[in-house]
Known about the structure:
The structure holds two protein chains of two kinds. Chain A has helices at residues 41-49, 94-101, 105-114, 130-142, 160-177, 188-194, 212-216, and strands at residues 2-12, 15-25, 30-35, 55-60, 63-66, 79-82, 148-152, 180-184, 197-202, 205-210, 225-237, 240-247, 250-256, 269-274. Chain A is α/β, with parallel strands linked by helices. Chain A folds into two domains: 2-216, Rossmann fold, CATH 3.40.50; 225-274, CATH 2.40.50.100. Chain B is mainly α. The interface between A and B is medium-sized, with 23 and 16 residues.
Amino acid sequence: MIExxxxxxxxxxxxxxxxxIDVKINNGSFVAISGKSGSGKTTFLRILAxxxxxxxxxxxxxEVWMDSQVVLKTQQRAIxxxxxxxALFDNMSVENNLLFVKKDKELAExxxxxxxxxxxxxxxxxxxxxGQKQRVSLCRAMMQKPRLLLMDEPLSALDxxxxxxxxxxxxxxxxxxxxxxxMVTHEPSEIYKLASRxxxxxxxxxxxxxxxxxxLLKLSGSQKFSFEGEILEIRKVDVIFVAIIAIGQQIVEVxxxxxxxxxxxxxxKINVSTKAFSPIxx
Amino acid sequence: xxxxxxSLEYTPFLLSFKLAMLTTMILFLISxxxxxxxxxxxxxxKPVLEAITALPIVLPPSVLGFYILISLSQNSALxxxxxxxFGIELVFNFTGLVVASCxxxxxxxxxxxxxxxxxxxxxxxxxxxxxxxxTLQTIFYVALPNMKPAVLTAFIITFxxxxxxxxxxxxxxxxxxxxxxxxxxxxxxxxEMLDYEGAHIYSGIMLVVSFCVLLGVYxxxxxxxxxxxxx
Lengths: 282, 231
C-alpha cells in the first residue's frame, strides 16, 4: 500500500495554485492520473520521485519516503520513471542504457525480449525511432525492479499505431512484474485499456477517483452514446441548421433545430448524445 | 634557414606549453565543481559568482597581475603562509606563474563547461539520479560524455589562452630565463633588443600553432554537429 498526502504551492499559468493530494494506492495496481494541463499531474509524479519537495508524507508499505523528519533522496527511492521525451543516455548503446541502471544482464535480456528490442541492443539511441526509444526507456525504468513505476505521458509523442503497440507492451510488463504503476495520460482509450483506477485532477485537487468505466462513460438517463466535441462551424441549410463538430480526431455533421441554435457558437464545447438507435459496427 | 631554426633557443616555448598544460589540468579540476554548481543552482548568488568568474576577461592583465603579485608576495598573509608552512615562494618563479595563470584563465574553462552542462536535457540527469547514481557518477558517466565539444572547447581555449598570456606573466613572473621567461615574454624582449629575426621566427611559430589548434577544434565541433560553449 502506498499512502500519499502532499501539499505544495505551485506557480502555474493561472497564478498560484495549491496542490493538495490525499490518496492511497494498492500494491500492484495500475493508476492513471488524468486532468487538464496545469492541473499538477507532472508535479505530483516529480514529488513522488523526490525530484521536487513538498509538505506531507509518502509511505510505501512500511518505508517512509517523505514526512516532516525524513526526506529520502531520489537515489534512495526504488522507482522507475518514464519521461515523455525518453531521456535516454545518448552516449550509451541500448543495452548499456539498461546495464547502467543495474548490472543484471539476464534481466536486461528478458526486458529487451518482451519489448522485441533484442536485435537493436547494440544500437545507439540517436539511430532509433520514437517508439523504439520509448520502449528502451520503459525497459530502463524496469531494470531496478521498482516498487513504484511512474510514467509521465509516455505515449503522447507517438503516432496512434505505435501507441497501440506500446500500450500492449506496458500491459505485458505490468502483468509480468506486477509493479505498482502511476501513469499520467489524457487518452481515454489508454486509461480504459491499461488502468484499473483513474484519478482526475483539477487545479491541484482530486475531483474524481474510481473505476475507469464509471468515470469515462459519461452517460446520463437513457443515453446510448455521448461524445464531447467542439463546434467548428454552423451553417444554415434551407430551414434547418447544420453544425460541424470535431469529436476527437473525427468531424461530424449534426442537424440543429432553430430554437437550439441561439445557444450555440463556433468554438463552444458541447456534448453530443443520442438515445435509442442501433449502431452498425464494421 | 634550418641553421637558424636549429640554433634557436626553444626553452621559452617549452615553458609556455608546460605552463599551459599544468594550468589546464588544474583548472579542469577546480572548474568542474564550480561550473556544475553554476549550471544547476537557482540561488540568488549565481550572478555574483558568474560576475567574479568572468572578471579576468574584462580586467587589464596588468591590474590582475598587480593584485596577484600583491596578494601572493611574502608580505601578504597568503604568501607568508605558503613560505612558512610549505617553503614555497609564489612570485617570480614557475609556481607563481601557474597560480596566476589559473586565475587569469578561469573563465575560459568555467564558461564552456557551464554552457555544456546547461545544454544537457535536465531529464537525462534526473534519469541518472532515478537510476540511483550519485551526482559525481552522473557528471562523469552521463553529463561529460554528452558534451564532448564543450569539454574540448574548454581545454583548448584555456590552453591557448594561457600560452598567449603576457601581462600577468610579466607582472608575476618577471623574465627569468628557464624559469618564467615564456614565449610571449621572450618575443617582447627580442623586439626591445631589436632582434627582429628572432621575433619573426617566434611569432611565426606561435601563429601557425595557434591557427592549427583552432582549426582542429572547429573541424571537430562541426563533425559532432553540436554547439557547446561559446566558441
